[in-house]
Amino acid sequence: MILLLLSTLLLIPVLMGTGKIVENFSGKLIEGISGKILLGILGISLLWTILAFFIPLNRYVEFSTIAIGLIYFFKDKLYKDFTAFSKKDFSLICLVSLIILFSGSFYPYILDHFGYYVPTIKWLKELGLVKGISNLDLTLGQMSVWHIFQAGFSNFSDPFLRINSVVLIIYTLYIIEKKSWIQLCVIAVLLLFCQSPSPDLPVIVFSLIILNEILKHNKQTSLLFAFSVFVFIIKPTMIWLPVLSFLYSVFILKSDLKNLIFGILIGFLFFIKNIYTFGYPVFPVSIIDLGVSWKPNPEVLKISSQFAIQKTYDMQYSYEEIQKFSAIDYIRNWLFLNGIKAKINLLFIVNLIIFVVFTFIKKNRIITFICISLIIKSVLVLLFSAQYRFFMDVFFVIFFILFVDYFNQKKSLIVFSGLSIIFICFLTFPNILQTYFPSFNPGNFMGKFEKEQLYKPSVYESTKFDSFRVGNLNFHVSANYPFNYDSKLPAISAGYVSQDEKLGIFPQLIDDKNLKKGFIWKKLNDNEKKQAKSVIYTINPLGK
């Protein structure tokens, strides 16, 4: 917790300094400390994404960025901005920050942390973006811009990967600067997601900030749209935000389309990054085939698509069963799954209906555009893979719009205090979740409170791994563990090794002597099939 505080005290000035540099070129997105920090996050993320094509995001990149940020922080005397807070506001910032730091010090428990977040960050730190890495492990093809941002600060500033806790503190600064008290309630809920660099937390935070700015008639068209696209490239299920910003810019501010160029360029960078790592413009969808040699095997993509459909139904039906569903079955079975997810799905539909009715009653153009944007997003998610984690942000948006005028500072603080106690209890005593919400799977992986976390955040030790070779690829597989986590690179999860062996294919190096040149897949010859079968026997001798 203390080390996380020190990390925050370093990163906020760095982000303010780099944000000031961006402001000098682009103008201000939002007045105040939080506005500079948001532009700092945007600028660093985009710069590092470009650099990652060519170099690893190692300590040299990090130290250079820190030095530049701190130089501008002190040169422009940005520390004076903090004097704008009253003693009362500053005390509230400290109190909320301590709650966030304590919550962020717990063990990570989201499974993606071990199978996606940490392995992705490890690749970015050691090699940068790698061409066709989805052939090695399809999950790694995502390479979210948020993990690029985290990777660059993970060598020294934030080695415990708690950048989301820092984001929540930045969010606190914004809330108190803008007196948008309802958003304190959001922070309380997000305490459950600040132990890992999950993209879900920043996109919820950033989208609500942009939403609030639109409702307040912020006229910085270019930056609003650009930052909205930035949120989209962190997590593409946030498509509703750039749609909303576009509608707001064109139909309310009557803005010239040239003001959208910055955002469009950010979008192009996202597509290029995905083509480089995955082979197609949008992960994990195989549309717009450019015919690049490093795109994944079609059967692998087919299996991934089928798995996404099964995840829609919480793995409670086989793919073959789902294919036999009638139109009514698709809806009914989704709404009446076993466990808590059925309640979340039903609540999602009810919330959308309530919001549509609210929109008709209000007859406000901005709210109408918000409703249109959310419906577009919801339809796309329902068609692709209607997992609750893909539409979780909709709950926050609808809550914000419906109750923004109801929650004053006093009410918000009461709700924030109550929810914080509840969620910190869940983190401290995970058996509560495991007992009363057994269908909430992440609760089963929560680690208990340890006094050592008052000094440093709790992290799991690296897993042991075994080394193998198939064709020209030497690789590593975690021993007795299904995910790569922190295994030596290049690492492949046992599940993908088994899948590739069954398909008669395997990832291979484009250049035998250079991992950075990337991966392709190839059909196995007889000798390579024997090598692959030997690997399967070693990692799974009983064939389970």
Radius of gyration in whole Å, from Cα? 23 Å
Number of strands: 4
Query: What is the terminal separation in angstroms?
Result: 41 Å
Instruction: Give the topology string: H per helix, E per strand.
Output: HHHHHHHHHHHHHHHHHHHHEEHEEH
Shape: globular
State which percent range the strand residues make up: under 5%
Percent of residues in helical segments?
55-70%
State the secondary-structure class. mainly alpha
How does the major sheet shape up? 2 strands, antiparallel
Mean of the pLDDT scores? Answer: 92
- Residue stretches low in confidence (pLDDT < 50, at least 5 long) are none
Strands ordered across the widest β-sheet: 1-2
The total of helices stands at 22
Q: Would you kindly provide a brief summary of this structure?
A:
The protein has 22 helices and 4 strands. With 544 residues, the protein is mostly helical.
Describe the fold and architecture.
- The chain is mainly alpha-helical and 544 residues long.
- It contains 22 helices and four strands.
- The longest helix has 25 residues.
- The protein is globular and about 70 Å long.
- The mean pLDDT is 92.
